[in-house]
From TrEMBL:
Keywords: Hydrolase, Membrane, Metalloprotease, Protease, Transmembrane, Transmembrane helix. It comes from Suipraeoptans intestinalis. GO terms for biological process: CAAX-box protein maturation; proteolysis. It comes from the Bacteria. Residues 131-223 form the CAAX prenyl protease 2/Lysostaphin resistance protein A-like domain. The chain crosses the membrane at residues 21-44, 50-71, 92-114, 120-141, 162-180, 186-203, 262-281. The keyword Membrane applies. One of its GO terms (molecular function) is endopeptidase activity. This is CPBP family intramembrane metalloprotease.
């Protein structure tokens, strides 16, 4: 498999420093377009929390477009490098959705068992079920946008010259910084966001495409906000089927930040990260008895050998 190479530039090894700044500029430009888009739609559509959520989440499409435009036209990164692999894409996306829903639900159940939150109401109606369908779509748009930016473009771009480990670190820090302005931010949410960034990068490497982690991200947010009525990264998103109320320490309940502010989420993600590291690096090394290699289906342009990015040779 051939990967399009970036033109050699003396300063490119410093990409881990300037590429996150490029990402910030792309976000800023996408936000300008999103504001115009949102104002136009909200002027035409009836006002409601559901409509507002649909418009806000669908606007994340402009982040995806900005990241892809830069990656494809400026850096000349191939679609495969960005994670847009056709083989098993739908399968990985649906499995990601199932995994994200299961992990989030597991976190909530642990929080309930430990007394951090309690269920105070359940509401299911035909209207809510019908409204959930477009919500699944816009949550998928939102999840995919953040993944394309952080784990599609940034992860691959940094890995080209600086190795996979630094790429994982940079993409995780970048993802964390994106949420600094969210309501309820504090040390535990910041740690949780960083760990999710690490987990997401490893998950992307495990599946070899962007689809799996996009599905996981979308399901995590959707179930957190529209199934269990938690704030999503500090932001309330409207009606939910199961109403939960904090009933204990904020380090268990997540406080105003939601599940991502809970120590439970941090512990669960730590376990998942440990499993992925073992699966990707140590288990594979035992099987090959030579060096640790990411499977060739991986969309990243480098295999991992002793923690450094090594150009894949086909």
């Amino acid at each position: 498999m051939e990967f399009t190479r970036i033109k050699e530039k003396k300063y490119h090894k410093l990409g881990f420093l300037y590429l996150p700044l490029v990402g910030g500029v792309l976000l800023f430009l996408a936000e300008i377009v999103t504001v115009i888009y949102s104002m136009a739609l909200l002027y035409l559509l009836p006002a409601s929390d559901w409509i507002l959520t649909l418009v806000e989440l669908s606007g994340f499409l402009f982040i995806t477009m900005a990241a892809l435009l830069w990656a494809r036209k400026v850096e000349k990164i191939s679609w495969e490098e960005l994670g847009f692999v056709k083989k098993s894409g739908l399968k990985h996306f649906l499995l990601g959705w199932a995994a994200g829903a299961a992990v989030l639900t597991g976190c909530v159940l642990l929080m309930i068992l430990l007394g951090g939150v309690r269920i105070t109401g359940i509401q299911i109606s035909p209207r809510m079920v019908l409204q959930l369908v477009p919500l699944l779509v816009v949550w998928s748009i939102q999840g995919n946008a953040e993944e394309v930016l952080a784990r599609g473009w940034l992860l691959s771009s940094v890995a080209r010259k600086n190795g996979i480990w630094l790429a994982i670190l940079v993409s995780a820090v970048f993802f964390t910084v994106l949420h600094l302005g969210n309501d309820g931010i504090s040390f535990l949410p910041l740690l949780d966001l960083f760990l999710f960034g690490v987990f997401a990068a490893l998950y992307r490497m495990k599946t070899g495409d962007i689809w799996g982690i996009s599905g996981f991200h979308a399901a995590w947010n959707c179930f957190q906000g529209n199934v269990f009525a938690f704030p999503v990264s500090g932001t309330a998103v409207g009606e939910a089927f199961i109403k939960v109320t904090p009933g204990g320490n904020s380090w268990i309940s997540g406080g105003s930040f939601g599940v991502e502010g809970s120590l439970i989420s941090i512990l669960v993600q730590s376990v998942l990260i440990a499993w992925l590291i073992y699966s990707l690096f140590f288990k594979r090394k035992k099987e090959n008895n030579s060096n640790t290699r990411i499977d060739k289906s991986s969309a990243l342009p480098y295999d991992v050998e002793n923690g450094k990015g090594v150009e894949r040779k086909e």
